[in-house]
């Protein structure tokens, strides 16, 4: 008998390996030092900016390797890290604070590979250096705020209907109303039964008690809102840090992961991420002229602030309301399909707003946004200097007496409405966040980790290759070929899967795979030896060896795969990286050591009569 | 051809099973006792707290660093070399009253101010206590889930006695590795947990190969009792078991010596686990199945018997 593979099987092996090799290739090209320029919310990066950057670089005598404008970002590639630092400094000075200028490492993948979508593997923070934060959203605080607001609303509504209560109190996620007289109970139920969204009514007539209980859906919605609000705000702040490829992601029920590759100054990062923003609603001083104020004659009782859309606005000193009374703000459209922002306030906020707007219908009201930004400088005591950054983000005319929910109309575009809603929410975080985990890896350690990981992989690889050739001779060489293709396959697949990240434990996983991947070949070759001992012909020995080892290999690998998948489900960060490489390694090694080696063995020994096998 | 194990005779592995039981029993009791008394040296990932790794230009003076930290409000800080004489690892337990998020930076600043010469930040890690607690729970749960899933898979693919033998062997490996970490006081961090799961993966790999052979030999040889069959299967797979362990140990040695201090614990756990796993797949898994009374009838493929009956019924 002869051992031959059909043509399609040989082709399949070749095609799979070729594709993997192409996608693994970008990892060999390394990375360029780069400076990345992107726009803030008010600016755009265009060819004009590109020209400006080019000029600046010429002035400091730095010749970029390449410059590219893509997706509104300018990427300047440079040849060394010292040039990179100088270039960033100069560009930052030339462009000013309106642009984000970040240090980056850009893959030096050739164009033809990039056109095929081939990119190098993503490196984890433990290999790249950078900061990882895990933040926890204080859900109790979020619930407390929502229920507290409900309590205020209930009090207000009962008072308005002149129903006398002995108490309206918050009890966990409930609002408990106790009516003073028994005859008021029915009235109270009637008033409260107008269905507050997200609350159900529980009546207890004997105790004259009505409980408003938050529904599960409302609880879930509130928590969801608290998380997504924080994610949005963190994203905006991370953009200010000037970090290339930051990650801000929700993790689990109440956590947010923030990863800032390349950032070393964690103190600054933390201060910016933790910076508080707040809002104030104030009346516009339209009796005095802005022009005179701009010349230094600010009238008594008023203050001048810059307007976001240019120019200045004169505001009355008294604050109607601060942002912490805002419960929600969302953008939408009014009856005439014009963009608007809907704002809901808590009970006290509603009262204040109602009081202040009663006598001011027809007058303009401004929204002042206040943010504390770290300047990057330190004072004498080495504390970071914060700058109070204030600007008027909106001026609108009061159309009627406002209550706990009102809207701002007259906005120019849906985009503007969205931005305003976002800023309003940013000034009114319903739940504070807290850092519960922080991992910072310095750049030197990251580089060292890569080198040590590579050393371990290379030595492990060489040791196993040597052993296999010594023990199994020519068949050992075939197994080594499979082992090498397996490495290429792992790297190729890791580069192809967008979510896969290489970490230090991940590299350990590759080392382990190298050691364990030969197992399948050992099983097969031992079987072939047994068959030869049992006096089968070489061709029959090959055939039976592969056949009888197959189910064993499958069973053994599936059980290991189970362990890898569980590890993936439970682990975070670097451990997930280990699970990913282990799982990929198991699958690819099955392919190379069963199908791959068979193709080679069939091609070399399968087509002819032989008396002896070199196994 | 080279052969590591040259034999044409069946090695009577099971004859020594009582000795193996004794050794394993002793090691298990010792491990559990040590886990109960010494417990594990839980790493930062599980306890919470702060770890700072800094690099000095010259060999670092540990006692000086200790006294600096002591006198500046960080008593009880663990200061040790990490990898080389120039690298220092400082570990601070979670503290109630101070703002834990700032401990890392303030210590780094302190060291920079007091040391002569450059101090470079290599790594700062802060883990809140609540994160650690969750992790311990999740880790234990992961281990149990893995064992149960594997138990079910093997019970379906093979037979319940072999499945219990296999999982018993796995539990044996995990407990002994935990015991080693407890006795030597090695730090048990997340990477070690990952290594333990990899040990489970490796050891089950070994056990499945043996089980597979036991089943095959039961079907192939009509003669011989369970003990003889198991001995035969173990002998058949012996050279494969040794070779695969050898290649795995080779790469793990590379990882242990070249992989750096960060994955030392990982490499240690795997090295020990692979050795114990190899032993357990020979002695614990199969002898447990033998003790549970695994027999030829249990491993016969049901379909084949039915087909045979059908044939006899035909006229």
Automatic annotation (TrEMBL), chain A:
Residues 433-595 form the Protein export membrane protein SecD/SecF C-terminal domain. GO terms for molecular function: protein-transporting ATPase activity. SUPFAM superfamilies: Multidrug efflux transporter AcrB transmembrane domain. The keyword Cell membrane applies. HAMAP family: SecD_B. Part of the Sec protein translocase complex. Interacts with the SecYEG preprotein conducting channel. SecDF uses the proton motive force (PMF) to complete protein translocation after the ATP-dependent function of SecA. This is Protein translocase subunit SecD. It comes from Pseudidiomarina sediminum. The gene is secD.
From TrEMBL, chain B:
It holds the Pfam family SecD_SecF_C. The chain crosses the membrane at residues 20-37, 139-156, 163-184, 190-211, 242-263, 269-292. It is found in: Cell membrane. Residues 110-293 form the Protein export membrane protein SecD/SecF C-terminal domain. One of its GO terms (biological process) is protein targeting. Keywords: Cell membrane, Membrane, Protein transport, Translocation, Transmembrane, Transmembrane helix, Transport. The keyword Zinc does not apply. GO terms for molecular function: protein-transporting ATPase activity. SUPFAM superfamilies: Multidrug efflux transporter AcrB transmembrane domain (SSF82866). It is a multi-pass membrane protein. GO terms for cellular component: plasma membrane. Its main location: membrane. InterPro entries: SecD/SecF_arch_bac, SecD/SecF_bac, SecD/SecF_CS, SecD_SecF_C, SecD_SecF_C_bact, SecF_bac. PANTHER family: PROTEIN TRANSLOCASE SUBUNIT SECF, PROTEIN-EXPORT MEMBRANE PROTEIN SEC. Part of the Sec protein translocase complex. Interacts with the SecYEG preprotein conducting channel. SecDF uses the proton motive force (PMF) to complete protein translocation after the ATP-dependent function of SecA. Forms a complex with SecD. Part of the essential Sec protein translocation apparatus which comprises SecA, SecYEG and auxiliary proteins SecDF-YajC and YidC. Belongs to the SecD/SecF family. SecF subfamily. This is Protein-export membrane protein SecF. It comes from Pseudidiomarina sediminum.
């Amino acid at each position: 008998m002869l051992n031959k593979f059909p043509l399609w099987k040989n082709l399949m092996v070749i095609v799979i390996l070729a594709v993997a090799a192409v996608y693994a290739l970008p990892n060999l090209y390394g990375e360029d030092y780069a400076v990345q320029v992107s726009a803030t919310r008010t600016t755009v990066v265009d060819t004009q900016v590109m020209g400006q950057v080019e000029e600046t670089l010429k002035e400091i005598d730095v010749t970029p390797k390449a410059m590219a404008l893509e997706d509104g970002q300018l990427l300047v590639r440079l040849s060394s890290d010292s040039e990179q630092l100088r270039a960033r400094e100069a560009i930052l000075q030339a462009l000013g604070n309106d642009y984000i200028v970040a240090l980056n490492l850009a893959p030096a993948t050739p164009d033809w590979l990039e056109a095929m979508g081939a990119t190098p593997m993503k490196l984890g923070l433990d290999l790249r250096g950078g900061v990882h934060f895990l933040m926890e959203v204080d859900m109790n605080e979020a619930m407390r705020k929502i229920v507290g607001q409900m309590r205020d609303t209930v009090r207000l509504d009962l008072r308005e209907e002149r129903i006398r209560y002995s108490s309206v109190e918050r009890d966990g996620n409930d609002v408990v109303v106790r009516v003073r007289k028994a005859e008021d109970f029915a009235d109270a139920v009637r008033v409260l039964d107008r269905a507050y969204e997200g609350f159900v009514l529980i009546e207890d007539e004997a105790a004259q008690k009505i409980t408003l209980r938050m529904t599960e859906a409302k609880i879930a919605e509130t928590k969801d809102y608290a998380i997504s609000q924080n994610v949005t705000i963190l994203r905006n702040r991370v953009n200010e840090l000037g970090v290339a490829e930051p990650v801000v992601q929700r993790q689990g029920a109440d956590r947010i992961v923030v990863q800032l590759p390349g950032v070393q100054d964690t103190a600054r990062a933390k201060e910016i991420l933790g910076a508080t923003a707040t809002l104030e609603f104030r009346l516009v001083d339209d009796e005095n002229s802005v022009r005179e104020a701009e010349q230094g004659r600010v009238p008594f009782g008023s203050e001048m602030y810059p307007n976001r859309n240019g120019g200045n606005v004169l505001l009355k000193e008294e604050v109607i309301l601060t942002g912490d009374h805002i419960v929600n703000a969302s953008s939408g459209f009014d009856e005439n399909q014009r963009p608007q922002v809907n704002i809901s306030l808590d009970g006290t906020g509603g009262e204040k707003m109602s009081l202040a707007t009663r006598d001011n219908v027809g007058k303009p009201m401004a929204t002042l946004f206040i943010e504390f930004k770290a300047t990057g400088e330190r004072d004498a005591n080495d504390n970071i200097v914060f700058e109070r950054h204030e600007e008027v983000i909106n001026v609108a005319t009061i159309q009627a007496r406002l209550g706990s929910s009102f809207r701002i109309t007259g906005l120019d575009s849906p985009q503007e409405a969205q931005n305003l809603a976002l800023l309003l929410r940013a000034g009114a975080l319903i739940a504070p966040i807290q850092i519960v985990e922080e991992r910072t890896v310095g750049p030197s350690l990251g580089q060292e980790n890569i080198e040590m990981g590579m050393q371990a992989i290379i030595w492990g690889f060489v040791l196993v290759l040597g052993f296999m050739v010594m023990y199994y001779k020519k068949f050992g060489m075939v197994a080594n070929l499979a082992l090498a293709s397996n490495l290429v396959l792992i790297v190729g697949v890791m580069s192809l899967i967008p979510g896969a990240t290489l970490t230090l434990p991940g590299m350990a996983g590759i080392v382990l795979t190298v050691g364990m991947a030969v197992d399948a070949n050992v099983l097969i070759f031992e079987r072939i030896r047994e068959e030869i001992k049992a006096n089968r012909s070489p061709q029959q020995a090959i055939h039976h060896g592969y056949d009888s080892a197959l189910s064993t290999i499958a069973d053994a690998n599936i059980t290991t795969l189970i362990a890898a998948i569980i590890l993936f489900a439970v682990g975070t960060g670097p451990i997930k990286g280990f699970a990913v490489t282990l799982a990929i390694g198991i699958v690819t090694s099955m392919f190379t050591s069963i199908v791959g080696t068979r193709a080679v063995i069939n091609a070399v020994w399968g087509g002819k009569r032989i008396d002896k096998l070199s196994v | 051809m080279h052969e590591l194990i040259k034999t044409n005779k069946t090695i009577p592995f099971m004859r020594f099973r009582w000795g193996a039981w004794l050794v394993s029993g002793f090691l298990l009791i010792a491990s559990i006792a040590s886990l109960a008394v010494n417990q594990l040296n839980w790493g930062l990932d599980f306890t919470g707290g702060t770890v700072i790794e800094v690099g000095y230009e010259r060999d670092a003076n540990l006692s000086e660093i200790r006294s600096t930290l002591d006198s500046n409000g960080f008593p009880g800080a663990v200061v040790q070399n990490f990898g080389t004489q120039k690298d220092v690892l400082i570990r601070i337990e979670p503290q109630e009253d101070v703002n834990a998020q700032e401990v890392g930076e303030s210590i780094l600043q302190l060291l920079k101010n007091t040391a002569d010469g450059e101090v470079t930040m290599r790594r700062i890690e802060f883990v809140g206590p609540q994160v650690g607690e969750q992790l311990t729970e999740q880790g234990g749960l992961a281990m149990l889930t893995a064992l149960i899933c594997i138990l079910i898979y093997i019970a379906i693919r093979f037979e319940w006695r072999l499945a219990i033998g296999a999982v018993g062997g796995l539990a044996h490996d995990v407990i002994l590795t935990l015991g080693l970490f407890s006795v030597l006081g090695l730090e048990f961090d997340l990477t070690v947990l990952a290594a333990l799961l990899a040990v489970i993966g490796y050891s089950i790999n070994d056990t499945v190969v043996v089980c597979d052979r036991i089943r095959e030999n039961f079907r192939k040889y009509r003669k011989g009792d369970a003990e003889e069959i198991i001995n035969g299967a173990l002998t058949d797979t012996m050279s494969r078991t040794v070779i695969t362990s050898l290649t795995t140990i080779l790469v793990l040695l590379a990882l242990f010596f070249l992989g750096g201090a960060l994955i030392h614990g990982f490499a240690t756990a795997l090295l020990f686990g692979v050795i114990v796993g190899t032993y357990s797949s020979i002695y614990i898994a199969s002898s447990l199945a033998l003790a549970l009374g695994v027999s030829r009838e249990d491993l016969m493929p049901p379909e084949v018997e039915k087909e045979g009956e059908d044939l006899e019924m035909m006229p």
